[in-house]
Amino acid sequence: MSKTLIALIAALASSSALAQETRTVSGEATYRERMALPDDAELIVFLTGFQGNELGGMSEAADGRQVPLPFSFSVPGGFKGELTAAIMIDDALRFVSDPVEVAAGTADVDIGTIWLSGFTPSGFQSTWACGDDRFTIGFRDNLAVIETEERIFELPQAISADGARFASEDGRNEFWGKGDKATLTLDGVTLPECEMVEDDNSWTAQGNEPGWRAVMANGRFRLDLNYGDDRLDLRLPEAEISEGAYHYDFAAFGLSFALSDRLCRDDMSGRLFPQEVELETATGVLKGCGGDTMSLLAGPEWTVSEIGPESVSDSGEVTISVSADGRISGSAGCNRFMGAVKLGGEGGLEIGPLAATNMACEEPLMALERDFFRAIDVVNGFNIAENGDLLLTADGETVIRAAR
């Protein structure tokens, strides 16, 4: 994370994304630690879009001011992105926020209060999969720094005759790495064998009649045309951000490629994608869809507003969370639930089987919960409404509506 953050900070002043119609992103940044900012502290806020392209940002000295520090800057309209805020002291990162999603659109956006936490550089970082769980593990000053969703563990190096071992004094937390495999124990619980995994930042798009497919990965643009009969593997140029789209120009090959953050439905399968794409060749323009369908569901929690034709009453809150790796969880009003979610063919959606806790609540909550489980049990598709709401459908009819 630190390398990406520092690179984006360095690129702030050189962004060319603002020479077009813009909207304003504003809010305030703060932290919970009890410390005063020195005069030389600097607030940095930026918004990144597709493939880490920098859409805009600002940097401003604190000049004696204390948190919360307000911010406001312009970004091009029509793009979605992730906003990150950071505070630098003595030219070093001291506080940083988790990314905050900003939806595509043209209206101004007020983020509200964004919370920062202490930043600890961890040197080389890698991602490890331990069963269904993933962890980021870095190494700094003879420490292994293990980041989970709830905590950061700093484990000192321990004696080992085989592999690299890091452990707490009480032995309840331990990382023991041997090549690309490891064992991990957290709070006394030993997880399934861990394997190092490579982050997959590839992006794909496709279109029909004639069939074509494009892949962006590792600085390359691979293109299959005419159902794979013609193939190109090109260096990916920097994107030009204009007119609500990311533009990639391959002038030497008579190609240009553009993508925009607008919902796209495949005209053959009916599957929904997060981006519209357009490929211009010497012989014509080909249209298609791109991105990961699961990204439309994953991310911040959804709050259910309607079950069938009825609005959810104030008696309880029903929520849905979807992870990028296909897990669903949330609150059914009284009990927590969890399970699997899978994208099916022809744009379908498969949810379940679901498991739930078994608490008893007052009857209004139990009735709400029964209605929710009956509705989600028949879901076989989804859509995104014009206002961004999630519509879970059964044979095309909306049975659950949720918003962020």
Automatic annotation (TrEMBL):
Residues 128-188 form the C-type lysozyme inhibitor domain. This is META domain-containing protein. InterPro entries: DUF306_Meta_HslJ, HslJ-like_sf, Hsp_HslJ-like, MliC, MliC_sf, Pilotin. Residues 1-19 form the signal peptide. It comes from Martelella lutilitoris. PANTHER family: HEAT SHOCK PROTEIN HSLJ. Keywords: Lipoprotein, Membrane, Palmitate, Signal. Residues 297-401 form the DUF306 domain. The keyword Membrane applies.
